[in-house]
Amino acid sequence: MSSVPAPTQITTLLRSQNIRHVRLYDADPAMLAALSNTGIRVIVSVPNEQLLAIGNSNATAANWVARNVAAHFPAVNITAIAVGSEVLSAQPSAAPLLMPAMRYLQNALVAAALDRYIKVSTPHSSSIILDSFPPSQAFFNRSLDGVLVPMLRFLQSTGSPLMLNVYPYYDYMRSNGVIPLDYALFRPLPPNKEAVDANTLLHYTNVFDAVVDAAYFAMAYLNVTNVPVMVTETGWPHKGDSSSEPDATSDNADTYNSNLIRHVMNSTGTPKHPGVAVPTYVYELYDEDTRPGSTSEKYWGLFDMNGVPAYTLHLTGSGVLLANDTTNQTYCVAREGADPKMLQAALDWACGPGKVDCSVLMQGQPCYDPDTVDAHATYAFNAYYHGMGMGSGTCYFSGVAVVTTTDPSHGSCVYAGKNGTSLMNGTSLAPSSNSTEGGSGAHRAFGDVSSLVRIVSTALLFSVVLLLL
């Protein structure tokens, strides 16, 4: 990126979107400091270039954990260490170092009494799975057995997930028309268009589920059946070369990521494991304007480097969505189950220093009823949100507010945003918890979609990745 957002800007954006899980591609100390005491669950990473040192030295691994994990935990809610990225496919010469590095890092966590809280795994490209359809016939590249077999035993013994990067966009692009676009985008298919695994008679309505189940079947082929799959990267580019990448569009990115979020949020699982949630990170939080490669490589982000939305996610039916809508069709409301005292404090701020015109909340006025702190706070939060132009961080209020597509207007009580209305007495900056500060940052991912939508509902993960669940 030509202009990397400061760590505090990143955490402000994460909090404004109610993202409670994040994946970092390193363990940048400034970023970890910014994440301190936010409650956001964090995956830190060992970059590929550090594998040589860590894989050859137990002491180096211990120092890495002491410096990048123990020094920050528990103020930073670190939940996992991702060791390298797609090492077996992108840097096969380093494959022999992968298991030693993972074991040394695990040893260091045990020594620090952190192994109960923090898991060790490594993200793989889905390309290590051969013959992925039908899923029941999938198996890992046998040339990798020397690394994968002990690795799966390690994951099994430590209760860690198999981390997998799943990109239906690339599967679709490489299929030369064999994979229908609707199948890649989670669009509804008529029963006769669904893919059926002839061995299991399981029906597949999207590429994502088929790849995840292929991983489960590939593990079962090696007699490993109780290691969960975590999708550490997935997404869709919103711009590409018009001639060679015609399906890299904002509409398709919106369709894929919105459908993905709904799919994960509903905990539908996969045909092989129905009802079993698949933790998923969406790639990515920011566009990367200097990234080499094809045009689309630069445009996987939900936001540009200035925090301006690349497009709007549409989560029809969920009522809640990422607050990256630049239209007036979103509203800021009190979070269900929020602490009443915190709501009252936020309401008092909005109607005071926040300069929201709260006269309509007085007895006898249109928005007095229902006379509850939730209802009054929703009115005030929404008026502030729209009065501030729906900017990043303006629907946060210390975590008791959330963005929704459901218009809370009722009767003669019209909320800001309906028909373009905005109800403010003037302008004011949000409280310090919503502020943006300067600093230096690094390449990272955002996360767990179940959090985005559970909070936005459950959790999105960012890395220059947006994670789901």
Overview of the molecule:
- The longest helix is centred in the N-terminal third of the chain and has 17 residues, at 95-111.
- This protein has 14 helices and 17 strands.
- 32% of the residues lie in helices and 13% in strands.
- The strands form five sheets. It has a six-stranded mixed sheet. It has a five-stranded mixed sheet with strand order 5-8-11-12-17. A two-stranded antiparallel sheet has the order 6-7.
- By secondary structure, the protein is an alpha/beta fold.
- The chain has two domains: 7-298, TIM Barrel; 331-430, Methane Monooxygenase Hydroxylase, Chain G, domain 1 (Up-down Bundle), CATH 1.20.58.
- Residues 316-321, 323-328 and 419-469 have low confidence and may be disordered.
Task: Looking at this protein, list some descriptive labels.
469 residues, alpha/beta, TIM Barrel, Methane Monooxygenase Hydroxylase, Chain G, domain 1, 2 domains, six-stranded mixed β-sheet, five-stranded mixed β-sheet, 14 helices, 17 strands, 13% strand, disordered C terminus
